[in-house]
Amino acid sequence: xxxxxxxxxxxxxxxxxxxxxxxxxxxxxxxxxxxxxxxxxxxxxxxxxxxxxxxxxxxxxxxxxxxxxxxxxxxxxxxxxxxxxxxxxxxxxxxxxxxxxxxxxxxxxxxxxxxxxxxxxxxxxxxxxxxxxxxxxxxxxxxxxxxxxxxxxxxxxxxxxxxxxxxxxxxxxxxxxxxxxxxxxxxxxxxxxxxxxxxxxxxxxxxxxxxxxxxxxxxxxxxxxxxxxxxxxxxxxxxxxxxxxxxxxxxxxxxxx
Length: 257
Known about the structure:
The chain has 257 residues and is an alpha/beta fold. Helix content is 47%, strand content 14%. It has a seven-stranded parallel β-sheet, sandwiched between helices. Strand 5 (132-137), helix 5 and strand 6 form a beta-alpha-beta unit. Helix 1 (16-27) packs across helix 8 (225-236), helix 4 (101-129) packs parallel to helix 5 (150-170) and helix 6 (188-201) packs across helix 7 (205-213).
C-alpha cells in the first residue's frame, strides 16, 4: 500500500488523530502537509522531524479552519494535493436552548464548512493529476446522536452527506471520497479527561473508562490513532479504488446497536 510520490494535506494534524494519520501516511511513503491554527516554532519543527525520520517531504502550514479563505489558501499553498484528509474539529456540550450561538457557528465552520472549502480547491488538482483520495473524519455521531451535542452531531452528519455528494461528483474519475466514523479514540485530549471523571464518579481508572467513557462502545476499548491512520491509508490505496461514498466505522460496535 505504498503512497510514494503522493502529497497529503491533513487538517488539524499537529496532535491527536490528525497526527496519527500523518504518521501512517508518511510510513506509507507519502509527502505530507501538517496543519493547525497555531504558527509556533514547534509546529514547524514537528513537520521537519517527521520528514527526516521517514525520508519524505513534510511541512507545516498554519491556517484557521474557521475561516473559509484560510481553508482554501491551505490547499493552494500546499501546491499539490493528491490526498486530502479533513480532520480538524472542535466540540462543545450544552442543551439546544442554552447552546451559545458563537459556539454553534464555530463548530459548524470548523467541523463541516472547512471540508467544503478544502475539497473545492483540491478537486481541480486531483482531476488534473488523474487521481485523488479524500478522507473525511466524521464520527460515530455522524451516524447516530447523543443529547447536548447538537452542533457537533449536525456537523458530523453533514460531513457524511458531503462525502457522499463528493463521491457522486467524482465517480469514474479515479477520485474517491469516504468518511471514517470513529468512536472514542484515546488521544491526549481524552486522556486528560480521565482523572476528572475518576473524581466525579469516585471510580478507578479502568472502571471509569469502561462504565462511563465507553458506555456506548460495546468493545469497552478505545480505538487508537494508529487504527484511524491505518484505515486512512487503506482508503488511499488501490485496494480501495472502488470504495467511495461510504462510511467506515471504527467504533468498537457503537453503531451496531
